[in-house]
Structures are given as C-alpha cells and as structure tokens.
Amino acid sequence: MLIRTIIVVLISLMPIGAFAMHPEAQYGGTEEISNLDVLVTRYSDETCKECHEEIYAEWKESYHSQSVVHSIGGLRNFIVHGVEKGWNAEITKEHLMRCMDCHAPQLQDASKSLIRDVAELIKKTVDAQDEDAKEKLAKLNVNCVICHNTKVSIEKNLKGKPKPGVYYGPKGKSTTWLKKAGFSATRAHGTERSAAVTSALFCGQCHGMYTPPDGDIIGCNTLYGSYQDAYRGNGGTETCQDCHMRAKNRGHRFPGAYEKDIVKDGIGVDAQVIGLNIKPGTWIPTIIARVSLTNKAGHRIPDG
Amino acid sequence: MVLDVTAKTDRGETVPIGKKEYWEIGLDLDGNHRYGAWQIKEIVDLTLPPRKTVQERFMAELPEGTKSADVDITVTYHPSKKITLDVFKETRTVTF
Predict the structure, then answer these.
(1) Which residue in chain A is spatially nearest to B49 when comparing CA positions?
(2) Which residue from A218, A219, A242, A222 is spatially nearest to A230, judged by alpha carbons?
(3) In whole angstroms, how large is the CA radius of gyration of chain B?
(4) Cα(A120)–Cα(A132) distance, integer angstroms
C-alpha cells in the first residue's frame, strides 16, 4: 500500500510531457514521412527506458541497436553493386526494403525521397567515411517498438495487425514494479500478450532466407532453416529465446556469433593426441590427432 | 570456424598436422561463389550440423630425430574478417 501511495504521488508530480512524449502519441500514423528525424520520432523508444531502464541498457549493447550501421558494408554493396551496377537501376523503396524490412522496418513509412536520402547516407558512410551520415543512420535500428509492435504479428490474416500504442510481450502484464503497487496496466501504454514473441519463428522472420514481395530470394542468412530442419528435425526443443535470452540471464543483449561466451557454449571439443614411430627400421616420429567437435547449438555453426 | 592442429618439435620446427574449415559457401544460380545476400540462392554446407558430433583425424610425420613435440589444438571462430574468437586451445606434449 505504501509503495502504491508513493508511486501515485510520484506519477502525479511528473510533468505532463513525460507521458505526452510516449511513442503511442506518435506511433500509428499512416502518412509517408520524408524527414528522417520525424520517422525516428514516430518509432521512438526514448520513453521506454524511463520504466524499462535495465532492459533498455541490455538492448543498447546488442547488435539489434546497431542493425543498420553494423551491416553498413553489406547494405552499401547491395545498393552499389546490386541495384546500380548489377540491375542498372536507381534505388527504389521496394529495393531498399529488401534489406530494411529487417534492418530498419521503420522505413516502411518512408517516402520515396527519404528512401533515396537513406541510400545516399549509406553510401556516404562507407565510401566517404562520413561520420555525420553514420550518426544519422544509427538512429535507425531494431528497437523496442519494432519487436514489441511492428514485427510482432506473424499471423496478420488471423489476428490482425498490431494495434498502435500497444506493446506485445510474452506475458501481457504490466511491469513488475507497477504490478506490486497494485496497477493492472501501465498508464504509459497498452500491454497485450503475444505467443508469437516467444516463438523461434518470430526471430526467423529475419534470421533466415527471406522472400520479398517480388518473389526473389535473399540469402542474407540461413539460420532459421537450419534450426527448423536440422535442430527441431533431430529432436531439439529449445527456442532462440531460450539460449540467446533466458540462458545465463542474457536478456535483451541477444548475444550471438560475436561473443566468445555463447560461441564457446555452443561448441564442445574433445581432443586426443598420440605420438608413435612408424615405418619399422626407419622409425619416423608421427603424430595422430583425433578431435571431436560437437555442435550444441540449435543451428548450424557457423551461420550468419 | 577453423580447427587447427600444429606441432612444435623439440628442435624448433613447426609442423602442420591438420586443418579443417567449417563454413557455408553461398552460390548464385550459375553455381558461382557469391558474397552478396541478393546474389546467394543456394549454399554448400560445410558447417557443423546441430546436435551432431563430427570427428576429425589427422596424421603427420615429424622430422627424423624428433624426441618430443608440443601439439597445439585450437578452434577459432571468425564472425567477420577482422574478428577471431578463441573457442578452444590446448597443448599436448608427446614423446618418442
């Protein structure tokens, strides 16, 4: 009761702007946006960290928070070598969304001119080592809004599109500290349960072979296919989230191929070495090494 | 990912015992190796499959007169060209 009273007092003392700035106020617009900062604001996660500070800090360390700038070389190569040289075409929204549907889904709301601007920023970042361009692109990433709203519905025909201003999670409950205080839902945003967000398929939307609307196939990585066919197909039962989030309390950092700890967890090594002399009479010192490598992960190793 | 077994003899020679690389080769529809995601349509899978153990066996002769050798077994993981993660490293000493 005491906690609840304190929270009620604190909330009543908060400036109105604290809630007015929440993404639900901006998110959900349908008009195309031509300014990068306006687009970023529509999908802003700035207010998420006010209540979910720890999770936000974890995410900030993740590669999801760098989903454009960390992959900048590949994005640039697609624009320059794929679209411009290979297809002899100018970049279009359809072209760029082949990559950005996963690397920056926010761009689904971008106008044609903003798409061209973003493509130029990508080229400037790589070709001219332009730090200002890189800084602008760093605002595009796979943030809280993208996973907990934009990409959450993998059964749109059955369950409809995500609702603007509602954040979907595995429990659909308010945050622990508010629940303890007796609140059933946060004032900051709506919360709903999503079974999809706990499934491997949710991650597989982007971490697998991708077929864009034009029917072409993009082999960015093949991880989900390996998970489904070789891991689940051989009796594996764990999900991406089990190993990359829940195990060792890895949380929203989603460590993967770039972190030694989780790579080591996925590979078992057993080595035996013997020395012997072969070829009687000549007696050549010889090494025989046997090394067993066990893939303990839920997908092929390595995989992109 | 690379498995490497190398011996260093008591006389200072370095002798490669064996090496194996595990990776995916991305192919275009003409069967050529490609790096661009938009170009890759199939893969040749030289990786470690999940839930499986792969056993490698290497045999190599050392220079005559070698009395002992330190054999390094290393497994390194390369998520990018610039990054190497040391997954496993052990040294076994053998005598003759």
Answers:
(1) A300
(2) A222
(3) 18
(4) 12
Cα(A249)–Cα(A253) distance, rounded to whole angstroms?
Answer: 10
**C-alpha distance across the termini of chain A, in Å:** 50
Dihedral pair phi/psi, residue B43, rounded to 5°: -130, 155
The answer to whether the Cβ–Cβ distance between B50 and A298 falls below 8 Å is: yes
Contacts of B62 in chain A (CB under 8 A): 284-287
Q: Which two tokens stand for residue A242?
A: 């089990």
Contact list in B for residue A260 (CB cut-off 8 A) is: 77, 85-87
Whether A13 shows a pLDDT value over 50: the answer reads: no
Per residue in A62-76, pLDDT (tens digit) is: 999 999 999 999 999
* pLDDT(A184) > 60: no
Number of Cβ within a 10 Å radius of residue A26:
16
E strand spans, chain A: 166-169, 190-193, 267-278, 284-295
How does DSSP classify residue A5? Answer: H
| H/E segment holding residue A94 | helix A93-103
Mean of the pLDDT values across residues B31-52?
95
A97 CB-near residues (< 8 Å, 6+ apart): A107, A108, A212
Work out the mean pLDDT of chain A and round it to a whole number: 88
The arithmetic mean of pLDDT across residues A100-116, rounded, is 96
**B38, B42, B46: which to substitute to probe chain A, counting the most A Cβ within 10 Å?**
B38
* A187: nearest Cα among A8, A3, A1, A67: A8
The ipTM of this complex is: 0.96
With beta carbons under 8 A apart, name residues in chain A contacting B90: 271
Does residue A8 sit in helix, strand or coil? helix
Q: Per-residue pLDDT for A9 more than 70?
A: no
